Amino acid sequence: MLEPVIVTALLIVLTGWCAVHCALVLAGRRCADRRLELTEIVMALAMVAMMAPALDPLPPVVWSALLAACAAWPALLLLGRAGRPGHASRAGPGGWQHYPHHALSAAALAALVLPLAPTHHHARGAAHPGAAAVPEWTLLALAAYFLAHAACGAGAMLPRPADAARRAGARPVLGPAAPSPRLVAARQSVMSIGMVYMLLGMS
User: Fold this and answer.
1) What is the pTM of this model?
2) Fewer CB within 10 Å: N-end or C-end of the chain?
3) Which pLDDT tens digit goes with each residue over 162-184?
4) pLDDT tens string 94-141
5) What CA–CA distance (Å, rounded) separates 171 from 148?
6) Burial tier of 40 (Cβ tally within 10 Å: 0-12, 13-18, 19+)
7) How many CB atoms neighbour CB 183 within 10 A?
8) Do 110 and 125 touch, CB atoms closer than 8 A?
């Protein structure tokens, strides 16, 4: 019976690391898109709050509002770039191509937070039938998507000879170093695994 507690504790630690890594990347001013880092910090903290509700000082309604904003913001940015295809084509890795994933992640988290509102106030951490407000097939479909996203992130962490040759020939850059692509991929995989864990727990 200790396995779920251990897995939850491990995911809380790893998701907390994701929030810290996002903040460090944002402070370093070398991230591909600062707007995505801000939304990812909010999502990581929301996931920690959902997995450890007893330590969460914010009510679920506040988290839902923050997550709804995190979902709307990249969606609006994506719509704005759709009208400027020439400008969108110059976006680098980690930029506008990841807006749909961030919007879906934030929307899914917002949908998961609201049913927990009665639990948060009365019996923190206990299961509540309000979680069934989201259809089970939707939860399973989202879990399959995030599982595939985690697998893609894990694949991006594998070493490639071309990447090693590129790093060997790269010139040193003054100022804050760019975030490691493997750390970014690891962070995205952890976030997706956390989503799978919570979605399957709700189903």
Assistant:
1) 0.77
2) N
3) 554 455 555 544 445 556 778 88
4) 456 678 898 999 999 998 887 655 544 444 444 444 444 678 889 999
5) 35
6) buried
7) 15
8) no
Structure tokens at 57: 């000082």
Number of neighbouring beta carbons within 10 Å of residue 201: 16
Position 120, amino acid? H
Considering just the CA atoms, what is the radius of gyration of the chain in Å? 18
Q: HSE (CB half, 13 Å, CA atoms) of 34?
A: 5
Write out the two tokens for 170: 């790269």
In this structure, are residues 67 and 110 in contact, taking their beta carbons and an 8 Å threshold?
A: yes
Token duo for residue 8: 């939850």
Instruction: Check: CB of residue 39 under 8 Å from CB of residue 70.
Output: yes
Tokens describing residue 4: 């779920």
Is the C-alpha dihedral spanning 75, 76, 82, 84 positive or negative? negative
- Find out whether 11 and 197 touch, Cβ atoms under 8 Å: yes
Distance CA 74, CA 43 (A): 13
